[in-house]
Amino acid sequence: MSGDKPAPVRRQGFWSYANPVKFLGFSERILPALWWLSGICLAVGLIWGFFFTPDDFRQGSTVKIIYLHVPSALMAINAWFMMLVASLIWLIRRHHVSALAARAAAPVGVVMTLIALVTGAIWGQPMWGTWWAWDPRLTSFLILFLFYLGYIALWEAVEDPDTAADLTSVLCLVGSVFAVLSRYAVNFWNQGLHQGASLSLDKEENVADVFYQPLLVAIAGFVLLFLALVLYRTGTEIRLRRTRALLARQRRT
Amino acid sequence: MKALLRRDLMLAFRAGGGFGLGLAFFLIVTVLVPFSVGPQSDLLARIAPGVLWLGALLACLLSLDRLLALDLEDGSLDLLATSPLPLEAALSIKALAHWLTTGLPLVLAAPLLGVLLNLPGPGYSWLVISLALGTPALSVIGTFGAALTVGIKRGGLLLSLLVLPLYVPTLIFGAETARRGASGMDPSTPALMLAGITLGVISVMPFASAAALRINLR
């Protein structure tokens, strides 16, 4: 099609960001925008949610913790899913940035899980009369928390960075299978107190519209915050690795 | 393969400690339970299936540390990796040897310890069945954990952190089978799920273990 003209420089599109230099340049350009957007979304969503929505007729004002609970729970799972995709990319295409992004996402994910667990407990105490119940949803989140801890511990324990990336990727794959398996296994001992999905596409189950809109804004804020944190932490990991390489070279000469 | 199995079994029998240790640990955990929750026999009867499952799981975990570490130290792991036998097969055999020396004795000892915990009559057969179905999965998953942590100094603690979350589904279905059996409900559904998990794990997990071990031996 291009005939005998010199071929234009082939655009690699998405994969060109696997180059650390290009990745750093790109993330530095969009990070300020991400920070601002996530800050604005969080502020709008949370302030709108906390101060400008009516109290629920049954739950009173405690319902407002939903603006922290639901987005963090959502991100806790999606962070693991993102790590799974990044691990697969590392295993298949060997892009270092991908492995580092998975490493960078894990602590963010574990904090999200912790926020979801803690806000859930604070919400559950007045609603169910208990801080904790061995309910499928709660329990599977606790297990997800343990998976995150193991994943981070394995990253810390292996010295060689490539070996660590390989091992944690394999663990992430196997862990995902078992996380799903545990999720359905825990259904076996209790049907639980937790309500069904509040944001499914099935309109019947959803929360009322007054709560829905600020919730969406808060979720957008959490997603943007997660992206910003992961990009930022990935950049830090890349620089750390460069520093280590420079130090090693200096020691040799 | 037979030679490898025979070698691993011989080592476990002769090395002292390795073989009986899991059983002794299982016994001690079971004996400690009445001290910690109180000796009311109806309470013990209710929690017996879960306690026995937990004890078996911990006893399995205890011996995982030695599964590959000793072979790495004396170099036989490198020989295994370069031998014509696929690494997946070698690790399956090692998991089998681990089950024969740790899991099988636990299965056989569980009814005796059930007496100590006042396990109700119909529970015994289902306890043995659930352990027989579930402990192979524990060995195979444990082999994966051992392969992940084999090069790491003081990997034992990390090993338990990595492996215990993976044990959750097996534990849930195993203990559920034993509990339903003990309380006279129909335990066939969780038993089938447990069997499914075990078969699935046996068929897929050796590949993950071999992948992890190859990375560690690189």
Automatic annotation (TrEMBL), chain B:
GO cellular component, one term: plasma membrane
Claim: Membrane is one of the keywords in the record: yes
Primary localization class, coarse: membrane
Pfam families the record matches: CcmB (PF03379)
One Gene Ontology term of the molecular function aspect: heme transmembrane transporter activity
Topological category with respect to the lipid bilayer: Multi-pass membrane protein
Localisation per UniProt entry: Cell inner membrane
Transmembrane segments: 12-37, 43-64, 96-117, 123-150, 157-175, 191-213
Top-rank taxon, per record: Bacteria
Keyword Membrane: yes
Annotated function: Required for the export of heme to the periplasm for the biogenesis of c-type cytochromes.
Record's protein name: Heme exporter protein B
